[in-house]
Amino acid sequence: MTRARLKAYFETSLAGLTQPTRSDWIFALRTVSAGLIALLAAYALRLDHPQWAMMTVFIVAQPVAGMVLAKGFYRLLGTLAGGVAAIGITTIFGTGPWVLVTVLAVWIGICTFVSSLLRNPEAYGAALAGYTAMIIGLPAFGQPHLVVDLAVARCAEIILGIVCAGLTSRLILPKLASDAIISRLKRCILDLAIYAGGAFSGGDRATLIGLHRKLVADTQTLGEMRAYARLEAPSFAPRAHPVRRTIGQLLSALSAARALHSHAAPKNAALIPVRSELQVLVGELAAKPGALDDTAPWVARLDAISAKARQMPDAPVDQGDDRVGTITRLTIAADFAEALKQVLRGLDALRSPAARRQGRASRQPALVVHRDYPGAARNAVRAALATLLVAAFWLTTKWSEAAGTVILVAVVSSLFAARPDPVQVSWGFFKGTLLALPFAFLVGQIALPALPGFGWFTLFVVPILVPAALAMANPRYVGVATAFAINFLAFLSPHQAMTYAPGPFLAGSASILVGILLAIGVFIVVLPADPWLAANRIVRAMREDLARLCLHERVPRRSAFESLAYDRVNQLMPLVQNSGRKGEAVLGGGVAAVTVGLEILRLRSASQNHAIPPDAALSVANFLRGLARELLFRAPGDPQTATVAVVRQYAAGIAQRNANSDALQIAASLRIIAAAMEDFPDFFARDKG
Question: What is the CATH number of domain 176-312+320-349?
Answer without folding.
Answer: 1.20.120
